[in-house]
Amino acid sequence: MKLIECPRDAMQGLTDFIPTATKIDYLNALLRVGFDTLDFGSFVSPKAIPQLRDTAEVLAGLDLSATQTKLLAIVANLRGAETAASYPEIKYLGFPLSVSETFQRRNTNQSTPEALADVAAMHELCERNGKVLVVYLSMGFGNPYGDAWSPEIVTDFTQQLAAMGVRVVALSDTVGASTAATITPLFSALIPAFPGIEFGAHLHTTPSTWHEKVAAAYQAGCRRFDGALGGYGGCPMAADELTGNMATENLLDFAAQAGVELGLNLEALGEASALNHAIFR
Fold first, then answer.
1. Mean pLDDT for all residues in the chain
2. N or C: which end of the chain has fewer CB within 10 A?
3. 2-280 architecture in CATH?
């Protein structure tokens, strides 16, 4: 079971700017915990996401000397991908490809065909630079816009990604629309159908529904989960009222119940949690 910690997702919708030094301290604490991957920042327009306008400065302050955690940066277009790919410290580039045309335009100002063309170019860019592209299938469990959604549509998107050679695809809830009844059949169908792809679950949730969502994905074969300490965050491009990220604490509880040993540094986790409370409360 891989845990991807997503402080970028937690921070991006906050109105008050978090000082760069505070971000660096928090991310360095998270790096000491031992998560598989840290979704630490994004190379997008500072007008779109002003909170993360200092991602390059934050990256320069990270201590990667004693961690196995890999860095992931979100990008919204090919120019951002080229910037992210220029940093040797970054392993993964993440791009939100939406199953909903409406949300694709809201999130990256692109049509679906334009976004797919960018994905192909980003994948080639990553291959040339020793990076790995992670495609987040946003609105992967439905959308609030009335755009067409079905398991077959999600499968068609995945087929196109597989044809490009994309190796990591995270089904993303975005607005908390998923239920066990939608999560289970999607992962159960996709995982055996595309053995060359590692599937992840980026689930947004309410406190009362987290367990059934994680259990549905895990029992269907998913082993890659995104979370954020405290369950903070949500996509500011999706709605005015944000549905929080899957709380990392809940993922840790689930792993313990399932008998999965994650090998995390619990002392460092406590330090990171204290910093989290100071930032978000």
1. 94
2. C
3. Alpha-Beta Barrel (3.20)
